[in-house]
Design a protein that fits this description.
With about 250 residues, the chain is α/β, with parallel strands linked by helices. It contains nine helices and ten strands.
């Protein structure tokens, strides 16, 4: 399978008072077509910062990000919009990712219409993907503040997958869902990975879920990747002391 995403020596620091905080330190990895890569680690280890740099929400201090072999760091305007149509992200706090002034259905349709999909078709697809994600079409007429966190998260997932992106980044995307809906979403993501060859980057603290859905796993600690392997290798045969500690805290 071809490489969809390649991250090369990314570095990100923040200034806090007189101190410089290193959030991400020399991170490199790739995600191939039809692969789900898990990124795990304790809160504050830099996982979400990596995702934000990939999606252009944060700028990298150093390093490169390649999408289908082309550098996307530093893009802006039309070139940036063209690339990020094929990169979608599901955020941990979905309410913040929706415009509070427009209904959920309009929010889902917006990305499709921006890609040239006719409004009638976009509306039909928004209903379809809401249903796939466990919500009735009536939710299209509700505002983000009128639904629960779990319902808003399902709408966020529907919006992301409705345009069939080449790369889907999930930042704790199923953490607000009950077990039944989580299983439905996991099954759906697996179908997209298999049938459409969608590359997926899953940022998650749930190691049992990572073991179920991911093909490879990276373990992060203090902004660095400290271990890499298959889910079974990481969970059953961890090499690093930090990984062992992380697993013991969960299982």
């Amino acid at each position: 399978m071809g490489v969809v995403l390649e991250v090369q020596h990314l570095k990100k620091t923040y200034k806090k008072g007189k101190n410089i905080i290193s959030a991400v330190e020399d991170i490199s990895f790739e995600v191939r077509k039809g692969e789900c890569l898990g990124l795990v680690g304790e809160s504050g280890c830099g996982k979400s910062t990596v995702a934000k740099m990939i999606t252009g929400l944060e700028s990298a201090d150093q390093g490169d990000i390649l999408f289908n072999g082309k550098a996307i760091t530093g893009l802006n305007g039309k070139a940036q919009r063209a690339v990020y149509r094929d990169i979608q992200m599901v955020f941990q706090m979905p309410v913040d990712s929706f415009n509070p002034r427009i209904k959920l259905g309009e929010g889902i349709m917006e990305s499709m219409i921006n890609q040239g999909v006719a409004r009638n078709e976009a509306q039909a697809r928004s209903y379809e993907y809401l249903k796939i994600c466990g919500l009735s079409p009536e939710f299209a007429d509700r505002y983000p503040y009128q639904v629960s966190g779990g319902e808003c998260q399902r709408a966020s997932i529907a919006r992301a997958i409705a345009i069939n992106p080449q790369l889907l980044i999930c930042d704790e995307a199923t953490s607000a869902l009950d077990v039944t809906v989580q299983a439905q979403i996991v099954k759906l993501l697996a179908q997209f990975k298999k049938k459409a060859g969608m590359a997926q980057l899953m940022i998650c603290h749930d190691l049992a879920l990572v073991q179920e859905v991911c093909d490879r796993v990276l373990v992060m600690n203090n902004g660095r990747v400290v271990e890499e392997g298959t889910p079974d290798q990481i969970i059953m045969e961890p090499r690093e002391a930090y990984t062992k500690k992380l697993i013991e805290s969960v299982f």
